[in-house]
């Protein structure tokens, strides 16, 4: 039993199962979901060296790549597929909201889990959020015909989930106590994600079950823009001989979106069903994260057997 409670995939599946079966508690976990993600962020940021931020030129490429992967690659693909497949106006708007949302902050801690380049993902994520302050209002005004100027929410998310965890990680490194956290970092990160994933599923459970006939086309769009796109990014990394650690960062930056922002804007500005794509996207994203972790363990076991 103790082994299961430290197994990442069991923890993630438990979050999904409990979110679908017992969504009532999600209202209680919602206030602590962002602090839980911030905790995972802080632990991941411990792997970012201090001297990385001392060379501004080194930040330009990951910043540019983060913006391109988030908006031009995945965002553009989502808008193209939704225009070709979806005829319902509200569902189309919901997909556009997901497309123009910044990358998921979970990219950074999951980069650590998958042995990617955390510093690269961190810079790319920050750049995507800064770009969102311009891109999202423009798309709302020019594409959706809605005049919205609410940068405060994005700035608040950046402060709570990126800036503050990064500062705390620097303090921990300065005090030289990071080694004491190493033993428990994986378990703390996994259960932090449990809170976040359970909350996402629990809050969207009724919305998901309210339109079962629309799940397939929306899910197909997100399977293509997450699973297939992630596969193609990895293959491109191999073809162009990109460093494996950077390829992991590129793949996550190009596949994971912040559905929370998309769903929140949908509920506050449009009819309720507009939030449906964000809910389905969260389900597909969870399956993708579980698949990535299973694949990593499979490759690790395969390499261990070859060495034997």
Task: Please provide a written account of the structure.
- By secondary structure, the protein is mainly alpha-helical.
- It has helices at residues 8-21, 26-45, 57-85, 89-100, 107-113, 118-142, 151-175, 178-210, 215-239, 244-253, 259-269, 276-307.
- α2 (26-45) packs antiparallel against α8 (178-210) and α9 (215-239) packs antiparallel against α10.
- The model has no long low-confidence stretch (mean pLDDT 86).
Provide a brief overview of the structure:
The protein is built from twelve helices and no strands.
How many strands in all?
Answer: 0
Domain unit count = 1
The helix-and-strand class reads mainly alpha
Unreliable residue stretches = none
Computed over alpha carbons, the radius of gyration is: 19 Å
> Major sheet, described briefly?
none
Strand content: under 5%
Distance between the termini: 29 Å
Describe the protein's topology.
Elements: H1 8-21, H2 26-45, H3 57-85, H4 89-100, H5 107-113, H6 118-142, H7 151-175, H8 178-210, H9 215-239, H10 244-253, H11 259-269, H12 276-307
Task: Describe the structure using short key phrases.
single chain; 308 residues; mainly alpha; Na+/H+ antiporter like fold; 79% helix; 0% strand
């Amino acid at each position: 039993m103790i082994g299961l409670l430290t197994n990442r995939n069991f923890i993630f599946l438990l979050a999904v199962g409990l979110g679908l079966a017992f969504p009532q508690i999600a209202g209680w976990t919602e206030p602590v979901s962002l602090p839980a993600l911030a905790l995972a962020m802080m632990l991941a940021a411990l792997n970012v060296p201090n001297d990385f931020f001392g060379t501004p030129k080194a930040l330009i490429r990951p910043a540019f790549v983060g913006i391109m992967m988030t908006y031009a690659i995945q965002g553009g693909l989502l808008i193209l597929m939704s225009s070709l497949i979806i005829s319902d106006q509200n569902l189309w708007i919901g997909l556009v909201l997901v497309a123009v949302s910044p990358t998921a902050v979970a990219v950074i801690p999951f980069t650590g889990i998958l042995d990617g380049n955390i510093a690269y993902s961190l810079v790319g994520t920050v750049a995507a959020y800064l770009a969102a302050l311009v891109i999202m209002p423009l798309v709302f005004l020019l594409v959706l015909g809605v005049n919205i100027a609410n940068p405060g929410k994005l700035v608040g998310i950046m402060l709570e989930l990126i800036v503050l965890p990064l500062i705390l990680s620097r303090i921990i490194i300065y005090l030289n106590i990071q080694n004491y956290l190493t033993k428990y970092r994986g378990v703390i990160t996994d259960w932090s994600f449990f809170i976040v994933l359970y909350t996402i599923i629990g809050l969207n459970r009724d919305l998901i079950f309210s339109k079962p006939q629309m799940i397939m086309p929306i899910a197909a769009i997100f399977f293509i823009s997450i699973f297939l796109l992630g596969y193609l990014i990895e293959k491109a990394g191999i073809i162009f001989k990109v460093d494996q650690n950077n390829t992991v960062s590129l793949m996550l930056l190009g596949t994971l979106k912040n559905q929370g922002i998309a769903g929140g804007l949908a509920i506050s500005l449009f009819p309720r069903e507009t939030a449906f794509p964000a809910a389905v996207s969260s389900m597909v994203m969870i399956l993708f994260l579980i698949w990535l972790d299973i694949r990593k363990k499979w490759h690790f076991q395969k390499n261990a057997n070859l060495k034997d």
